[in-house]
Every structure is written in C-alpha cells, then in structure tokens.
Amino acid sequence: MSTSRTMFEKIWDRHVVLTRDDGQTLLYVDRHLCHDGSRQGLSKLKAAGYTVRKPDQTYATPDHYRPTNAPTIDDFRDSEMRGIIEELADNARLFGFHHFGLDSDKQGIAHVVGPEQGITLPGLLMCCGDSHTATHGALGAYAFGIGASEVAHVLGTQTIWQRKPKSMRITIDGTLGFGVSGKDVVLAVIGQIGTAGATGHAVEYAGSVMRDMNMEGRLTVCNMTIEAGGRSGMVAPDETTYAYCKGREYAPQGDKWEQAVADWRTLPSDEDAVFDTEVSVDGNAIAPMVTWGTSPENVISITGVVPDPASEPDPTRRKIHEGALDYMGLTPGMRMTDVAIDKVFIGSCTNARIEDLRAAAAVAKGRRAVVSTLVVAGSVPVKRQAEAEGLDKIFTDAGMEWGEPSCSMCVGMNGDILQPGQRSASTSNRNFMGRQGEGGRTHLVGPAMAAAAAVTGSFADVRDLMAK
Amino acid sequence: MRKFTRLTGKAVPFDSINVDTDQIIPAPFLSIMRTDGYQGLLFHRVRRDEAGELNPDFIFNKDIYADASIIVADRNFGCGSSREGAAWALVDNGFYSVIAPSFGDIHFNNEMNNGMAPVQLDDAVCADLRAQLHANPGAEITVDLETNTVTAPNGDTHSFSIPEFNRERLLQGLDEIALTLGYESQIETFEAQRQRTMGYIDD
C-alpha cells in the first residue's frame, strides 16, 4: 500500500483525536472564527451550561449585521442589529475570546480578517459558522463551514466530529489571459463541474494558474468552493504563502517562524498521491465570466448569450432553467453585454481585499458610474490601505459610495439590499433568488467586471475598457 | 436532542433541484433566536407571490400537506449557506425527514443535529416516490431508523445508509457536547502532543 498522501490527508491525520470503529473521527480545531451570527451557537452553549474551552483559540469579529453606513455603534439606526453586535462584545467579555469589535483596527469580514491577521496559517484546521470558511484553504489550511450546533460544539470542546470526505484535485493549467481574475477562474470551475460537483469532497486546487496566482486570487477561488458543493478548498503553501503570512500579528515570529516554515514545506501533496476525483480545467480558455441565472453554475463568458432552456435535455433542469430566466427577466439568446443593470456591489468575503479594490479602481479611474455603486472594503486594514493609495478617492470621484467593512450587500441582512426587480452586478458569491433582497436579480462577476458594469450601465467586457 | 426512531407521515413531493438554504429560510429571519421558534417561516419567500400572498399552487401551501412530516426532494437539497435556521424551519414546521438523492454537506449535518433523519436514496427511487405521491396526494411514507428502511406508499421498501455515529445519536437523542466531553482525556492528551509537534503556534 502506498504511503503517499494528499495535503488534505496530511492535515487531517495530524488533527485526529480519535477515530471510532464506525469511521466517525473527532478532529482538533486549531483556531475557531466567530462572527455576530455565531450568537445562536453561543446561546446554545450557555443554555446547556458549558463554557468556551479555548478562548485563546477563538477569534470573533462582527460582519454580517454591520451596516456599511455606521462608522461606530452609536451610528446604528437599527436597534436589533446594534443589539446583535453588542451581544458579541458581551460574549467576548464573558468568555474571554479575541474580539475585533467596531472600535478595533482589525475588524472586518471573518474570512478577510483571518488571513490578514495571521490567524489563518498553513496546516491548521479551522472552522467557522459560515459556509465560506473554505476561503482559508488558500493558505494551505483545512477549513470548513459548520452549523450553529457545531459552533456550540467547537466552542465547548475545541473539536469537531467528521466523516472523512473524499479528495478532489482541480488542476487549472495554462496561463490566464489579460483581464481574467481569480473570480473568473472559480466561476469557470463551477460552470464546468456544477453546483454539486464537489459535494462530499475536500478540494485541492493545483496547476500553473494557481501557482502563478497571488494570495488574494487564491482566497477568491477557495472561497467559492462551497458554490461547487465542497466544504473545503485548498492550495498548497509555497513562497507566495510564506511571504503573505510573514510578520502578521498571530503568525509565528522569530525562531518559531523558521520552525513553522520548515514544517509547512512538508504539507504539499506527495507527487504520487492519489485523489478520489481529478478534474482538469483549461486556464488558457477562461474569459471574464458573468452569471445569468439563480445558481452559480448558471455562468457564461461575457461574450456569450443567455442560454436557451430548450437545449437542456434533462426535463427537471429545463424547468429550473425556465424558472431562473423568468425570475431574472431574461430571454434566451440575449447578449450579456445588452443586459442593463441598476446597481453594482463591490465587496464581500469573495472580493473585498486590496487587490480586488485595486482592480476595480483601475477601471473606475477617470470614469463616472452611471448606476448606483457601493464599494465596501473587507476589513479596516483593507480600507485604510485603499485610502492610503487613494482608491477611495477614485471611487468617490466616480460617484460611487465607500462603505464601512461589512458583509454588506452579499447577504441582505444588514440594510444593504436590492429592491424587488432590481438587477445587480455583484462581486459576491451567490445569485440565489432573493439573496440580495426579495425579488433582487443578482449577477456574479469579478471586481474589474463590476467596475466596468458600473461605468457603462450594462455588463461589459472589461478587457475593452482596460485596453484603453 | 429529540429522538428519531420511526416516523410514518404524509410526504410532500418537491420537484426541484439545488434547493438552497436561502430558499428554505431567507437571511432576514436568522436574527430570530432559536428558542423563539421558526414556525411559519419555511420557504417563506418562495411560497408567496409578488404581492406577498400565499401562492396556492406552491405545493407546501396545499391544505392536504398541512400536517405533512416528510419531504421527498430532488438532487442537492440544502445547498449553499451553513445556516442552521434551514433545519429549524423544517422541524418547527413539522418536517422530521427529508428524502433526496443528495444533500448539501453542511445542511445534511444540521438536519441530524436537530433530530431529523436525512435519507439518501437513488435518483430513480426518489423520482418514483415523488411520482407515487403526486398520483396519490396525502399518501404516507415510513422512515425507520432502527431498520434503515423507507417504506413507500405502494409498500416497497428501500434500504438506506446514514452515518452510524449520527444514527446512534438520533435513536438515543444524545447531546453531542456531553458525548464528546466523555472523551476529554483523549482531547487533553492530544493538546499536550500538539504542544510538542505544533509548538510554533502561539495560542
């Protein structure tokens, strides 16, 4: 029997507390990320009379319920949202876990804060009560989203019960073309394998496209693994990873840094490691992408047209396809570049990092938004960096709004929403019906494509604007 | 946790793939605390028309299914967000078992952590069950976790498998945290060993 292991197997093996005869495994959680929405898990923990086993390994930041127009807690107009943010601060005081509140220079979206503060590191096992926890795998961590009962369990025990998922390698070879981003890569992957394509699998992204990609792009790719059904998506740590992690607050320092890097170099999958499922994606062929329907798998290139449900052989899928077009107000054969929009959102755990804002600003610079556009940095450090580079000025000069760090319009629960029938170009991760507000029509795109839509008023091929 | 042993009840045939948890319960309701209940919120948005009125054609709005307790769904039920509110909306509206060819991974666990039995059966079997239910609305199905079988309206039985750990917990209604803390000495041993092998991580 081969002793070769995938990176996922190596990280899994080093976190096994015990495996029962039935295969159920108790895994140790190195670092647990919490947010304002983790209150249901905290409430369950308290009601059952337990405490937080490892407050030092628990990091919390408000994100889901933070209005982007409220710089401080006193600016909240909604008392329920204010109460939810205060509840997290109260829980942090009660249990003593790390808390990056609204007055902290570390606050932001949990999946932006983790990597940025060095909480997320290669080889760690991490959980968070949010499905986009897969994001952290970009640094070579095994990270996955959990429900509220599991949040309570991790808080109370610092462990989680799991059945070992299958392994999947998605190899993206070739070189990305001009104007093609990490968002386009992951949308292309989801379009190819479908929204359940990676269900039951721990995904590793590999190939020259991933090796050449910067950390922000890798974070975007891993983030949307759940949109292909996979709970975790990972990239092998390399020099890009170490350069990104070095010097961050909760990363090892000094001698410990050297020990850490030496250990992390053993993590990548062995050359002859066998994956349960292999997928190959042609990186050369990926163009800027845009979704047309109500599932992230409903995605085409910006040069494409709205697909015809009549060409769908499966009757169930055909019916869903027709329903999606009806909801989205689109007709088959329409060119995506002819679809006019009402709103642009640039932000979310998928695309609110500094490289995302730079890409959007490069397109917005010297132009005017012709539709309402909201730009929301993923964290206080991203916001400050963007302001230091003058990106905020580029956005506001273009007539765009510049909000406070929050999940904002991705999630439709903090005041930033679409009105019924409004159509958005959004850098978020889900185009589900009603996701951005009841009756809202969401099209997922990358940050440069969102800026291109903002300045033209319809979907546009960003490559044409960048070439100018 | 509520025990699940054997359930016989009316089953709703739900012919839709990729039913995401945003459809099962929209995000604005997630600020409701679990203890305050999730009654009346299941499929809140999709069961209403544009004017906000209940759509009589949406299958969950039909009178005959007012006391249904099982859903027979299609592929990838509960994909998307990790929100446990989706499972709470199901149980608080009387649904204790969902039968489908496949589930979203996180939602599958959320169901089992709330006393529900998610049952995976083949595509063709699920399609046949839905066809039987459409032909005979209000027909009953039995989900038996002691024998791991589903009995269809026509009397056919289908075996299913569910993770044994969760099956035991459901049959006994065991609290997961208490169960895990029964292994506390192993957790402490692991933590001591982790201090040696991953000591470069400062907690």
Q: What does it look like?
A:
The complex is a heterodimer of chains A (468) and B (203). Chain A is an alpha/beta fold and 468 residues long. Chain A folds into 3 domains: 7-165 and 239-264, 2-Layer Sandwich (Aconitase, domain 3); 166-236 and 269-285, Aconitase, Domain 2, CATH 3.40.1060.10; 289-467, Aconitase, domain 3. Chain A is built from 16 helices and 19 strands. Chain A has helices at 7-13, 39-47, 79-95, 110-116, 148-157, 182-193, 208-212, 215-223, 239-245, 255-264, 315-328, 354-364, 380-388, 391-397, 447-456, 462-467, and strands spanning 16-19, 25-28, 31-35, 58-61, 98-99, 125-128, 142-145, 159-162, 166-173, 201-206, 232-235, 277-282, 289-291, 299-301, 343-346, 372-376, 401-403, 423-426, 441-444. In chain A, the strands form 5 sheets. A 5-stranded parallel sheet of chain A has the order 5-4-3-6-7, sandwiched between helices. Chain A has a 5-stranded parallel sheet with strand order 17-16-15-18-19. In chain A, strands 11-10-9-12 form a 4-stranded parallel sheet. Chain A is globular and about 55 Å long. The mean pLDDT of chain A is 97. Chain B has 203 residues and is an alpha/beta fold. Chain B has a single domain, classed as Aconitase, domain 4, CATH 3.20.19. Chain B is built from 7 helices and 7 strands; from the N terminus they run E-H-E-H-E-H-E-H-E-E-E-H-H-H. Chain B has a 7-stranded mixed sheet with strand order 4-3-2-1-5-6-7. Classes of the chains: A alpha/beta (468), B alpha/beta (203).
As residue ranges, the low-confidence spans of chain B are none
What's the domain count of chain B?
1
The N- and C-terminal alpha carbons of chain A lie at a distance of 58 Å
Tell me about the largest β-sheet of chain A: 5 strands, parallel
Kindly report the name of the CATH homologous superfamily of chain B: Aconitase, domain 4
Major sheet attributes of chain B:
7 strands, mixed
SS-based class of chain B? alpha/beta
Number of helices of chain B: 7
**CATH topology value of chain B:** Aconitase, domain 4
